[in-house]
């Protein structure tokens, strides 16, 4: 059975390898294979890979890390001015209540105690003052200073019995006294010992006290604080009241009696609170549940959830919120209330303050202050060709002339017509037209009486009338399209176009004019006569869409220059004196050749060839004629160019200067501006490059053949293509030659190319097959071990 499976797998593998496919094992077989691998592992290496649960956990951690962007780097999202509160019954929205932002409100005063869980610490002594009502107690350290007839400085500690021991003086009671009281008592005590002295008593370090914070606080418990701590310090250590805790009725119990009641709103509103007393050891701070809580949102300065006392009204609520914003609409305040087990909406107007003051608030009220409507009253607006666009106050008996005088018309304003867009009583729009010219001239019937919310539109003359244009092309400085002005002549257009160029033919300026229903009319003008003043009647008035052409003087061109360098007697630049001047003429003007001139290596370059090649797009023509190949997947590919194509290299023209100078006219070349000729000196040898061990220049030997120079360069390399050797002659000609070729001259170059290797599909197929068989052998081994 196993052998049969193996044979089937072998046959299947060879079939798939011929089709360049891959083999997949059945799922059950693959699971057994993994199990065998796991059993073969050493014990310490087992179960090291993460489980699915661990991988999921790692993915979650990675996701958490990815989204944990610092809040300071995330731009705040601007909240919408309104939000909808939906009432859903049986998965169906039955009501939508619109409320002003913010949607989520914080408890007022909660931010006073910072973020929950922050570490808190009190200031050391010296960083905050000691109040006058601070009472000394066990653990306080007092600094005593005496000066005068007696100089003394001592740090005294109040012991457990509340006494202070003074060296050379004795013990005195200190507990329960304020610093001022203890100073006076100590002065009287020391007068029995010292005389003529001044005394100063300060608190060096305050005692530690233990207080209890209980009730509706974030972190109830006992706290060890500085003896200078107040009620707020203790609440701050406990992270303040919870959202359900009271901020208005915080009580301090001492020895079972209420010694203070703190109202945090009083502190926030006025900066001080009489209930914020200094604490004593074993004091109990109790935060009861909050009283009546009201939500106030919308156009107030500090929207929040506020705690109100029974005696306070809506104006007290607004005062806690910092007052209304200027945009608040006070005539309709919405109160969303739970009343007698039902939700109701009540409208409240704050215009009548006496009635609003008696409006009773209930616990859980959600009060919304909406903005005033955006619609502006008592306004008219003006847009268009005016100096001061915008909105203006509407007054009774306001007319169009009053507005036009205020805004001022621009020069381009169209005076024949303007429009008033008016909103009717049915809220539809109507248009009323008038003539600004008649209004400004005092025509009584044109000065329309305006209404509230009218919009006046003053048009530009160019919105009504069409601008007219003419064009000029040819030998002028700034050819193009120009606006046609009233009374514009041909000379005016040439002037605004910058005037004529030097090559302009003034005797034949061409004007093409459109004639409705006919072909274009062409008029020829001798502009020289216009300039001389002889025929001013030919300085025509231009019409819309006229087109002027200024031609170039026939055969006009700037002086053309040819450059010749190298082994001539007078190298340099030479001007072409006639259209048929040839290369041989330029060489004669240069004084002929020197004794070192190598005529066979002469180089002739013409830069205009590069531009001609680019315009004819020779590279595109070559690419379009490339062979197209379709691969096995049906993808169409083009064979790449096997040579580099550079138009600059085509600028050299191959010449035979020896024949030219012997007078063979068919070899001579007519020169053009920009041509460059170089006559090199006689070379010393023959260049050998390509697939030879030693590339370089070898001394020329007359009648020596190609084999001689190849051997001098070390012979052919292993990858040299011996049948494709080329000889590049000094004048640029390229010849394919054999080893016996012996017409090699000084300055020639021998090029030995490399062989082109071909990759067969069979070789690639064998490579893939070997890879598949290798994997198959491993699979067969596993199957035999099952």
What's the story with the biggest beta sheet? 5 strands, mixed
- What is the overall number of helices? 19
How is the largest sheet built, in terms of strand order?
A: 9-8-12-10-11
Helicity level:
10-25%
Tell me, briefly, the overall form: extended
Radius of gyration: 53 Å
What are its keywords?
786 residues, five-stranded mixed beta sheet, 19 helices, disordered C terminus, single chain, alpha+beta
Kindly describe this structure.
This protein is 22% helix and 28% strand. Strand 18 and strand 19 form a beta hairpin. By secondary structure, the chain is an alpha+beta fold. The chain is extended. The relative contact order is 0.06. The strands form ten sheets. A five-stranded mixed β-sheet has the order 9-8-12-10-11, with helices on one face. Strands 14-13-17-15-16 form a five-stranded mixed β-sheet, with helices on one face. The protein starts with a helix and ends with a helix.
Fold topology:
Blueprint: H1 2-18, H2 27-40, H3 52-67, E1 82-89, E2 92-100, E3 141-148, E4 152-157, E5 163-166, E6 170-173, H4 179-190, E7 197-205, E8 208-215, E9 221-226, H5 231-237, E10 250-254, E11 257-262, H6 264-270, E12 284-287, E13 292-298, E14 304-308, H7 314-320, E15 328-339, E16 342-348, H8 353-357, E17 366-371, E18 379-384, E19 390-393, H9 400-407, E20 413-423, E21 429-434, H10 436-440, E22 455-460, H11 461-464, E23 469-474, E24 480-483, H12 490-496, E25 504-513, E26 521-525, H13 527-532, E27 547-552, E28 561-566, E29 572-575, H14 583-589, E30 603-605, H15 608-616, H16 618-624, E31 628-630, E32 636-638, E33 652-653, H17 657-661, E34 676-679, E35 685-690, E36 696-699, H18 706-712, E37 726-728, E38 734-736, E39 749-752, H19 761-785
Parallel strand pairs: 8-12, 13-17, 18-22, 23-27, 28-34, 35-39
Antiparallel strand pairs: 1-2, 3-4, 3-7, 5-6, 8-9, 10-11, 10-12, 13-14, 15-16, 15-17, 18-19, 20-21, 20-22, 23-24, 25-26, 25-27, 28-29, 30-33, 30-34, 31-32, 35-36, 37-38, 37-39
């Amino acid at each position: 059975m196993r052998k049969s499976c193996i044979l089937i797998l072998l046959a299947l593998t060879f079939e798939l390898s011929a089709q360049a496919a891959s083999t997949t094992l059945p799922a059950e077989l693959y699971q057994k294979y993994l199990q065998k691998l796991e059993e073969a592992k050493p014990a310490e290496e087992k179960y090291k890979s993460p489980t699915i649960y661990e991988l999921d956990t790692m993915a979650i951690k990675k996701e958490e890390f990815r989204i944990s962007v610092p809040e300071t780097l995330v731009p705040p999202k601007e909240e919408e001015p309104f939000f909808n509160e939906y009432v859903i019954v049986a998965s169906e929205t039955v009501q939508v209540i619109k409320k002003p932002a913010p949607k989520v409100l914080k408890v007022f005063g909660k931010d006073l105690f910072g973020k929950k869980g922050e570490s808190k610490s009190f200031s050391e002594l010296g960083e905050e003052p000691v109040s006058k009502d601070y009472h000394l107690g066990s653990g306080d350290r007092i600094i005593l200073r005496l000066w005068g007839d007696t100089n003394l400085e001592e740090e005294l500690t109040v012991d457990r019995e509340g006494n202070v021991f003074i060296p050379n003086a004795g013990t005195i009671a200190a507990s329960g006294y304020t610093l001022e009281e203890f100073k006076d008592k100590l002065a009287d005590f020391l007068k029995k010992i010292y005389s003529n002295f001044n005394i100063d008593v300060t608190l060096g370090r305050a005692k530690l006290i233990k207080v209890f914070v209980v009730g509706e606080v974030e972190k109830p418990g006992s706290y060890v604080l500085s003896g200078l701590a107040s009620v707020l310090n203790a609440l701050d250590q406990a992270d303040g009241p919870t959202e359900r805790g009271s901020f208005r009725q915080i009580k301090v119990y001492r020895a079972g009696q209420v010694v203070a009641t703190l109202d945090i709103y009083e502190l926030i509103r006025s900066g001080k609170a009489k209930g914020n007393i200094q604490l004593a050891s074993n004091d109990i701070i109790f935060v009861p549940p909050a009283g009546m809580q009201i939500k106030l949102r919308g156009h107030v300065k500090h929207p929040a959830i506020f705690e109100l006392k029974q005696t306070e009204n809506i104006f007290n609520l607004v005062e806690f919120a910092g007052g209304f914003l200027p945009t608040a609409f006070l005539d309709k305040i919405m109160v969303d209330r739970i009343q007698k087990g039902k939700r109701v909406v009540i409208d409240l107007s704050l215009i009548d303050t006496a009635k609003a003051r008696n409006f009773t608030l209930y616990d859980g009220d959600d009060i919304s202050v909406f903005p005033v409507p955006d619609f502006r009253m008592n306004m008219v607006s003006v847009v268009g060709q005016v100096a001061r666009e915008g909105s203006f106050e509407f007054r009774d008996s306001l007319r169009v002339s009053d507005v036009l005088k205020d805004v001022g018309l621009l020069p381009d304003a169209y005076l024949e017509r303007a429009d008033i867009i008016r909103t009717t009583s049915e809220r539809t729009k109507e248009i009323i037209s008038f003539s600004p010219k008649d209004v400004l001239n005092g025509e009584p019937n044109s000065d329309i009486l305006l209404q509230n919310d009218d919009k006046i539109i003053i048009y530009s003359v160019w919105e009504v009338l069409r601008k007219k244009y003419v064009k000029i092309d040819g030998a002028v400085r700034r050819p193009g399209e120009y606006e046609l002005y009233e009374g514009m002549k041909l000379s005016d257009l040439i002037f605004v176009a910058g005037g004529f160029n030097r090559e302009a033919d003034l005797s034949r300026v061409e004007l093409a004019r459109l004639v409705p229903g006919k072909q274009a009319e062409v008029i020829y003008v001798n502009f020289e006569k216009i300039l001389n003043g002889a025929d001013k009647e030919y300085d025509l008035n231009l019409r819309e869409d006229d087109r002027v052409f200024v031609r170039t003087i026939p055969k006009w061109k700037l002086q053309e220059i040819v450059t010749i360098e190298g082994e001539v007697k007078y190298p340099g630049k030479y001007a072409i004196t006639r259209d048929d001047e040839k290369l041989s003429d330029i060489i004669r003007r240069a004084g002929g050749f020197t004794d070192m001139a190598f005529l066979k290596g002469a180089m002739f370059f013409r830069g205009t060839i590069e531009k001609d090649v680019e315009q004819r797009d020779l590279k595109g023509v070559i690419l379009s004629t490339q062979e197209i190949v379709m691969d096995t997947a049906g993808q169409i590919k083009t064979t790449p160019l096997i040579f580099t194509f550079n138009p600059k290299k085509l600028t050299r023209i191959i010449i035979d200067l020896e024949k030219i100078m012997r007078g063979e006219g068919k070899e001579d070349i007519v020169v053009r501006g920009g041509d460059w000729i170089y006559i090199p000196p006689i070379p010393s040898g023959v260049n050998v490059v390509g697939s030879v061990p030693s590339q370089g220049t070898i001394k020329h030997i007359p009648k020596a053949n190609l084999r001689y120079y190849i051997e001098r360069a070390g012979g052919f390399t292993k990858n040299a293509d011996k049948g494709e050797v080329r000889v590049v002659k000094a004048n640029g000609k390229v010849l394919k030659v054999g080893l016996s070729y012996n017409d090699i001259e000084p300055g020639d170059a021998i090029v030995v190319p490399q062989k082109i290797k071909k990759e067969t599909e069979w070789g690639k197929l064998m490579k893939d097959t070997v890879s598949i068989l290798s994997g198959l052998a491993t699979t067969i081994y596993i199957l035999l071990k099952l």
